[in-house]
Design goal:
With 255 residues, this protein is of the alpha/beta class. The protein contains ten helices and ten strands. The protein has a domain of 84 residues. The chain has a six-stranded mixed sheet, with helices on both faces. A four-stranded antiparallel sheet has the order 2-1-4-5, covered by helices on one side. The protein binds adenosine-5'-diphosphate and magnesium ion. The site of adenosine-5'-diphosphate has 10 residues, from helix 1.
Length: 255
Amino acid sequence: MTEPLLRVRGLSVRFGGFQALQDVSWEVHPGQILGIIGPNGAGKSTCFNATTNMVRHTGAITFMGQDVTGLPPYRLSALGLHRTFQQNAFFGGISTLENMTGVLLRTTGTPLAVAVLLPWVEYRRRRAAEAEAHAILERFGVPRGLHHLPPASLPYGTQRMLSIALAYAEGARVLMLDEPAAGLGGPDMERLARVLDRLRGENIGIVLIEHHMDLVMEHADYLVVLEQGKILAHGDPATVQADPRVLEAYLGRAA
Ligand SMILES: Nc1ncnc2c1ncn2[C@@H]1O[C@H](COP(=O)(O)OP(=O)(O)O)[C@@H](O)[C@H]1O
Ligand SMILES: [Mg+2]
C-alpha cells in the first residue's frame, strides 16, 4: 500500500455546546476515491472545513508526509490540497476561459519585472496558458463553444464541472469535492463520473462527499459513513451498503 496523501486523525469540532464532529479519522491514497456519506447534518461539510482549517477543531492532519495541522487554507492550497464547495464560486465579470487562464498563470507566475520589461515573453506565456486552459476545460466536459461565456451563463451542470476543473488546474494532489453531483441530471452525472475516473487515473487522491448513492457505490474505493458527527461504519462500498446500521441511519430518518 502507498503512503496516504492526506490523513486526518481524531478530528473533533464543537460549535458552542454542540459536538458537530467527534474523533473522525480517515485517509486517502494516490489514485483513490474516498467517499464520505451520511444523512443531512451528519458533519460531512464540517469535516472538510476542519481538514482545511476553516473551523476550530482538534485532531491532526498530515498531507504528503508533512504535519499541516493548523495551516491556513491558502497554504494548504499552495501545497496541492484543494476543495470545492457545495455552492459554486467563480470570478463573475470575466469569461470561463479567463477564469481558467487566470488560475494557470497564477500557479506558474512570472516575476513582475519580466512581465514589464519583456512584454513579448508575457504575451507568449499568456497565449500558451490560454491554449492549455481550452484543453483542460474540454477534458472536464466544458465544450469549447462555451469558453467565452461568463461562468454564470453556463448550464448548471457545466458550472459544477468548471469548479472541479479550476481546483484541479491549481495543481491538486488531493481534491476534496463537496457534493459535486448536487442538482445534476443523468448526462451530467455520467460526465462527472468520467472526470472522477480521469482524476483517479492521474493519481490524484479524491475525497468525495456525495448523496447520490449510485455514484458513490460505483466509483468510490472506500467509504466512511458519518452520523451525528461520528463514524458509523467504514469499509469497501459493498460491505458498507450491506451494513444494517447504515441502512437504519438512512431509512430510519427518511420518514
Ligand atoms: N459554523 C457553524 N456553526 C454552528 N453550527 C454549525 C456550523 N456549521 C455546521 N454546523 C452544524 O453542524 C452540523 C453538521 O453540519 P454539516 O457539516 O454542514 O452537515 P452535512 O454536510 O453532513 O450535511 C449541523 O447540525 C449544522 O447545523
Ligand atoms: Mg454538507
